[in-house]
Structure formats: C-alpha cells, structure tokens
Design brief:
Layout lengths: L17 E5 L3 H11 L4 E5 L3 H9 L14 E4 L6 H11 L4 E4 L5 H9 L7 E6 L20 E5 L6 H13 L3 E4 L2 H24 L6 H4 L4 H7 L6 H10 L1 H23 L6 H18 L11 E8 L4 H11 L6 E6 L5 E8 L4 H10 L3 E5 L2
Parallel strand pairs: 1-2, 1-3, 3-4, 4-5, 6-7
Antiparallel strand pairs: 5-6, 8-10, 8-11, 9-10
Helix pairs in contact: 3-4, 6-10, 10-11
C-alpha cells in the first residue's frame, strides 16, 4: 500500500455542490481549475464543442450529464451574448444562483430587465483578472489570487445568494468588493478599458517605425504596451458595451494630451515647462495612489542589479537577499538586446535599500542604480 502522507492536504471549499460553468475560455476554465483543486464538482458547457473538449482535456471540469443539479452557475461568455446566456441559465436551473464574470455590468442588467427576466437569483460579478492570451490552453487556477472580485448586489439579492458568490471569490483567492453596476462600469473604464485603448494606440505607432528605433525599446515601453496584445474581437464588444464611461475618460485624457502638446510646441514660452512638469508630477501622484502589495498604498524604493544571463543567477540573487533579511516586494526584469546580462529592478522598503546595496556589493553583485 502506498504512503501518500507527504501529499498536500486539499483545502475545503466554501462552495458546495456542483458548479456549472458556461464558457470554457480563459476565465471560465481558470475558475474550473481553481474549484477542482478544492474538490468541487465542475461541469463545463460551451457553444464550441472543440473548445469544450479542450478545456475538459486540460482538467478544468467534466462534460454535462442529464442529472446535473448545479447550485451555482458561472457564465463566462463574450459580452454580446451574455444576456441571452444568463436568461437561459436562469430558466434551465431554477434552483441555482447565477453569476457572470463579464467586464461590463450595467448594459447586460438593463437588457435582462427589458426582457422581464426574473433576476432574484442573478448576481452580476467581475474578477479583475486575466491574461493577454485567451482560451482554455492559457487558463490557470491562480490568476484570481489577490485580485479584486466585484459583486453587484441590488435590493432583490438575498443574503444567502450573495454569500454563494462571495464564497466563490474567496475560494479562488480573490477579494470580494461590493459595488453597484454603475460604479463598477465607471471604475473599469478608468483602470482597465481606457488603458487598453492607450496601450493599443501607442503600440500601433510601432507598425511603421524603423527597425533601428524599435531596437532601442526598453522595459518602460514594454510595460506600457504589454496589454496591446489583447484580442481585438473581444475588446470591440467590451468597449461597445461600456462606451459612455470610456468616452468620458477619453475626452478628459484628450484634453490633457492637447495641453501637453500645446506646451511642447513652444517649449520656451512662459509657463510651458511648468505645464509639462505639472503633468508629470500629477502622474507621480496618481501612481502613488495605486494599491501595491497586499492592497497597501505604500511607496517602495528600487535597487537595480546587473544579473549575468546564466542559469541560477536570479535564484542566487533572491537567496542572498534573503540572507540579508531584505524582502523583495516586487521585481522587474529587463534584457538589453545582444547583452549577456539583464537588469533586475528589485523593489524594497526604503529602510532596506542601504542594507541591500552594501550586502550585495560585498557579495560581488554590480549595482546599476538606486532611487533612494
């Protein structure tokens, strides 16, 4: 008889019974993987038989059976069919709480109300998580860990049903946050939808740029345009469904861009340099407000270390920082084209900068820069 006492214990799930997930793409399959890791019975459904089979093969859940009686239905389909699928799932599973993970909340709710759907068992939600690549093949159980999960309740929502959706978020390692649909859509326009447009427009400038220019690209431009690799088909639907809040942010951003452009057209004119400096400083203030590690609004300092491009060097760096009692709060890696080393930008608390620099230099590491 084999001894499996060394196997990790499975953490009990807050979600009980069978969970049905409609839509076996990135988010739906990721939910399935995370729930199955907790021992939950997960049923998958998808309009595409090939997508469904792929998600099942990867272990995100099983195929539906005639006697399935889910207690929770998670709808993870594109925005243009979200209202249709929610209405159908409410009708097909009268004992289930139905939620969805769409990135727009108000328009689907309005459409369901226009149709006269009974929404007493429907609770809209949205995990602020994802990846640049979609599909079941890109799904991961941990993409929700530490991320906000917005839950949109209304006056008809029962406490018991709300608890089911919040339990789902907690099981997946996310942080439930209650918001109205209107609040949610305004918020994601600012922190998700407009950044997608800005990244895409900036990356679009690269299409006709000379190769010599692009060879100068560093980590800053890669960070700024990372999300530009997202799927155009999906984002056309998302932006169309949340058009009004997005346009409001874009109009104000356009005013800011026009003001900076006007200042730079005459950089020596009175007030021009101040206008540019104020724009950069306001960006500093905005970045300071973004929640950091563990949701804290906390400022870190950075230490940039030159790391040879050979196996084990990054692990050695982390190990020696641990010996110095320096906690790595964040990490960014930059590789220079043709160079045999990379730059590791380590974020640490301000009080640890000098200890990190002195200790690493004593161990032979080359420090490129610090911002202490």
């Amino acid at each position: 008889m084999s001894d499996d006492s060394s196997a990790p214990a499975r953490v009990a799930s807050r979600v009980q019974g069978t969970v049905r997930i409609v839509g076996a793409g990135l988010l739906g399959s990721s939910v399935g993987h995370a729930l199955r890791a907790r021992g939950v019975d997960v049923v998958l459904a998808d309009a595409s038989p090939a997508q469904l089979r792929l998600a099942v093969d990867y272990g995100a859940g099983r195929l539906p059976a005639d006697d399935d009686r889910p207690g929770l239905v998670v709808v993870a389909v594109p925005p243009d069919v979200i209202a249709d699928v929610i209405q159908q799932e409410l009708a097909d599973h009268p004992d289930a709480v139905v939620t969805d993970v769409a990135s727009v909340k108000l328009e689907p709710l309005r459409e369901l109300r226009r149709r006269g759907a009974d929404l007493t068992r429907y609770i809209g939600s949205h995990p602020l998580a994802g990846r640049e690549r979609g599909g079941a093949i890109s799904a991961r159980a941990d993409i929700f860990v530490g991320r906000p999960w917005v839950v949109c309740r209304d006056g008809e929502t029962s406490a018991a049903d709300l608890a089911v959706v919040e339990a789902l978020a907690l099981d997946l390692g996310a942080t439930p946050i209650e918001m109205s649909p209107e609040e949610h859509d305004r918020a994601v326009a600012l922190v998700s939808h407009v950044p997608q447009i800005v990244a895409s427009l900036l990356a679009g400038r690269f299409v006709e740029a000379p190769d010599e220019s692009l060879r100068l690209a560093g980590q800053g431009v890669r960070d700024t345009t990372r999300i530009a690799a997202s799927a155009p088909e999906l984002w056309t639907q998302i932006l169309g469904a949340n058009a009004a809040p997005v346009v409001d942010v874009l109009d104000r951003l356009a005013d800011d861009l026009s003001a900076v452009s006007a200042a730079l057209r005459e950089p020596d004119a009175a007030g021009s340099r101040r206008a540019v400096a104020d724009a950069i400083r306001r960006g500093n203030d905005g970045v300071d407000r973004l929640p950091g590690k563990h949701g804290q609004n906390r400022r870190f300092e950075s230490v940039v270390v030159m790391v040879d491009d050979t196996p084990g060097q990054l692990g050695r760096l982390f190990g020696e920082l641990g010996e110095l009692d320096v906690n790595v709060e964040d990490l960014r890696l930059e590789h220079s084209p043709g160079a045999q080393f990379g730059l590791a930008e380590i974020s640490v608390v301000p009080g640890a900068v000098r200890r990190a620099v002195d200790g690493l230099q004593a161990r032979g590491w080359k420090i490129a820069s610090t911002n202490d």
